[in-house]
Amino acid sequence: MKVAMTVWGNRVSPVFDSAQTILLAEIKDSTVTWEQREFIAGQIPTRLARMLVDRGIDTLICGAISEQPASIIEAAGIKLVSFVSGNAAHLLEACARGISTDHFKMPGCKIPCCRQQWQQQTLDPQRRPDENGG
Questions:
Q1: What is the C-alpha separation between 39 and 105, in angstroms, rounded?
Q2: Would you call 133 helix, strand, or coil by DSSP?
Q3: Residue 8 has pLDDT above 80, yes or no
Q4: Confidence of residue 103 (pLDDT cuts 50, 70, 90)
Q5: Could you tell me which residue ranges the Dinitrogenase iron-molybdenum cofactor biosynthesis domain spans (predicted)?
Q6: Do 68 and 45 touch, CB atoms closer than 8 A?
Q7: Are 13 and 69 in contact (CB under 8 A)?
Q8: By the 8 A CB rule, do 13 and 19 touch?
Q9: Alpha helical stretches, state H, 26-132
Q10: Residue 123 has what pLDDT?
Q11: Alpha-carbon gap, residue 75 to 71, rounded angstroms
């Protein structure tokens, strides 16, 4: 499995849209076997999605992400694990070992997370708030 994670120093970058570095990693037999960091500042989401697909990335892990880039990444066939935070090495290790990453969720983003709740509300007309906000 190949994973990409937007990073800022040794932490998950808090905002995907302004991330400047991406960590690319390969996981085999529950072990991280390869890592590489790349500078991505200024890349538009479609170009970044193409780069991830070309490198065989299965999953993108990131902090907060806007709706449009999230849709572009997912439309490219890449699993998106968003609204997470914390130490990048610890999160990557959790992914390698198949450990739940729930405790890496950003404060206020428990499952289902912000984006998932939004998708459920927009896809399920019965869950949409009425015009009065109720």
A1: 25
A2: coil
A3: yes
A4: confident
A5: 9-94
A6: yes
A7: no
A8: yes
A9: 45-54, 67-75, 88-97, 114-123
A10: 42
A11: 6
What confidence tens digit (pLDDT) does each residue in 124-133 have?
444 444 444 3
Strands 31-39 and 11-12: unpaired
Structure tokens at 108: 């206020």
- The secondary element (H helix, E strand) that includes residue 6 is strand 2-8
Note the pLDDT tens digit of each residue in 12-57. Answer: 999 999 999 999 999 999 999 999 999 998 788 899 999 999 999 9
- DSSP conformational letter for 67: H
> Could you tell me the maximum CA-CA distance found in the chain, to the nearest angstrom?
53
C-alpha angle 86/89/90, rounded to 5°?
Answer: 60
Spatial separation of the C-alpha atoms in residues 38 and 41, rounded to whole Å: 9
DSSP-based three-state secondary structure for 32: strand
How distant, in Å, are the alpha carbons of 26, 70, 112 from that of 121?
A: 35, 17, 12
Which whole-number Å values give the CA distances from 107 to 1, 37, 104, 122, 129, in the listed order? 28, 26, 9, 23, 23
Tokens of 112: 């289902």
Structure tokens at 89: 């090495």
